[in-house]
Amino acid sequence: LLDSKTLQAALLNLVKNAFEAMPDGGELTVRSYATTSGVALDFIDTGCGMEQTTALKMFDAFYTTKEGGSGLGLSATRKIIEAHGGLIQVQSSVGRGTKFSLQFPRPPRIGSDLDA
Fold it and tell me: Would residue 114 count as lying in a domain?
C-alpha cells in the first residue's frame, strides 16, 4: 500500500534537486503517463547535468557533489520509490540537463480477487 507522505517527500526531493541544478534559471518538466504495466513519471530539467561517474554514484548513501550536502536525499528517494514497487532511472548530459524516470506498477484492482 502506498504511503503518500513519504512518496510525496521523494518526489519533492527530485523537484528540489532540479531547481538546484538550474541556479541561473531553466525549465523543469514533470510528465506523467500510463504504461502497459502501470504509471510513469518523468522529471526533466534543463540544468547543468552531470558526468556519468556522478550519475552512477548519485544514489549511494553519503555521496554528494553539493557543498554542505549530506548525500542522503537521492539515496532515500530511491529507497522510497523501490519500497512502493517502483523503479528510478537517470539520464544526464553535462550542460544539457537531467531526466529522472520513475515507473510504478499498476495497483491491483479492488475486488479483483472476488471476480475469480
Answer: no
Look at residue 83 and tell me whether its pLDDT is greater than 70.
yes
User: pTM value?
Assistant: 0.83
Helix-helix angle 73-83:4-20, to 10 degrees: 140
Q: What is the pLDDT of residues 5-16, one digit of tens each?
A: 999 999 999 999
Residue 60 to residues 55, 56, 65, 78, Cα–Cα distance (Å): 10, 9, 12, 10
- Residue 112 within a domain: no
Cα–Cα dist 56/54, whole Å: 5
Look at residue 100 in the predicted model and tell me its pLDDT: 97
Domains: count for the chain: 1
